[in-house]
Design a protein that fits this description.
single chain; about 160 residues; seven-stranded antiparallel sheet; disordered C terminus
Amino acid sequence: MNIPVGTVVEQHKSFSEIVPFKRLEKILESDFNGYFVATIEGISGLEEGLLLIKEKNIVGAVFDSLRLNKQVYGLLALRLMFNLLKAKKGLFDLNSLSKQQIDLIIAFNDCITLSKPVEKQLLSKLEPTSYQENLVSKILELELESSASRHNLLKKLGLGSI
């Protein structure tokens, strides 16, 4: 997925320096347009998440488990990203983009789009109480099982090569 760099607003901020959820709340209060990226060393290796923000709303999410070489998009990515933000150690960056750049990202990567944008009021309801180490592996296993069962169904229908 290609995301333009944009203008760096904050770079390599430590979770111990600034609480990520508090910073995200402040971002959603402003008219910020861009993305929030966080990286941690989790149980499944390096975990990285990106939240796409447009006009006081989180409109897209991507989560990447670098060691497992798996990406998750949309609502599941949002859940994994929120989990990641509750880790004790990590770094985050904040980059601004124009509204047009965000619209282009969404147009070419519609899988990252959330069905309903997340605003500040909803953020506190979705915030997990703590970092759950095994959440990434659980969700990725479910994704693998789901895609395997789809493949088996297509195979039974004689469409296995699709």
